[in-house]
Amino acid sequence: MNIKKIRYYESLNYNPYINLSLEEKLMSLVDNDELIFYLWQNKDTVVIGKNQCAQDQCNLELMKKNNITLARRSSGGGAVYHDLGNLNFTFIAKKNNFDINKNLEVIKKALEVFNIKAYFSGRNDLLVDGFKISGQAYLNKKDVSLHHGTLLVNVDLMHLGKYLKKDDSKLKIHGVKSFHQRVNNLSAFSSDIDIEKIKGSLKDSVVKVFNAELTYQEIYDNELIEKYSSDSWLYKFTFDGVHIKKRFNYGLLDLNLKIVDNTIIKVLINSDIMDLDIIDEIEKILINQEFSNSLLDKIKLSNSTIENDLKEMLEEKLCTI
User: Fold this and answer.
1) DSSP type of residue 8
2) Which of 32, 63, 82, 110 qualifies as a FRET site for 132, CA 20 to 30 Å off?
3) CA–CA separation, 33 vs 44, rounded Å?
4) Residue 36 in contact with residue 46, Cβ under 8 Å?
5) pLDDT digit string (tens) for 117-168?
6) Of the segments 83-92, 122-131, 209-218, which one has the largest average pLDDT value?
């Protein structure tokens, strides 16, 4: 690892399209010897993962009625609710300088200032006393890696169940009956914590953990804002073919295949799987293939667990068509 400097960005805008577009821009700007650390907040927003279907994840009519914004991020994972009681963090570095454990250490040490002891659990959660206080996701592009997540400081937890659709299969995997059993605010563990204080603690912590000087920066990009606010990005899933759906411990696999003359001509995958490369692999393997038993022999994924599950799902569907 060769981090010599930390570029710090703090968004003063609560617009999710601006804030998410800045992440993409920053990935294109990071230098070989630096870490970019970015803090931002969204006002009353549901943010879905790159491969999720908005209609499946959100109560869109209620969101529209109550002026809740829909946004889609460029990383995988599941849907989250943001309000101004939530603080988002982003780490960006070249892959050879990227260390997820150091990033997590920054968050944990920042919370220790408030006598809060957090620990990592499962695919992407930070917990305190068994409650989720942070969800996280990851993105790799060429030689750059991104790690971002939420910190629930004083979020309106009732809105989690109000605007996000309940997924019984996901709750069953986690052994809980509702969102509220699983999540909590950091303010429940410390009366001293608030957004501004945790920002200051995070800035101090990232300097100590990476032992590098922090400099403040500003940036803006109109073109990317248009992308993240476009309907083609927000509502990119329309299903009109063979539907195969199952939830596993690592996430949801929801395949939608348009088949003409027994050949798969279109593949849409609705999923909260963290690894976007796996989704791309599945799409490339299935497209333009004959939808028959011979298809099973052609499936070779980098993740053998998902490969076997995908074959099983397709085999079950082939038996019914």
Assistant:
1) E
2) 63
3) 36
4) no
5) 999 887 678 999 999 999 999 999 989 999 999 999 999 998 878 999 876 5
6) 83-92
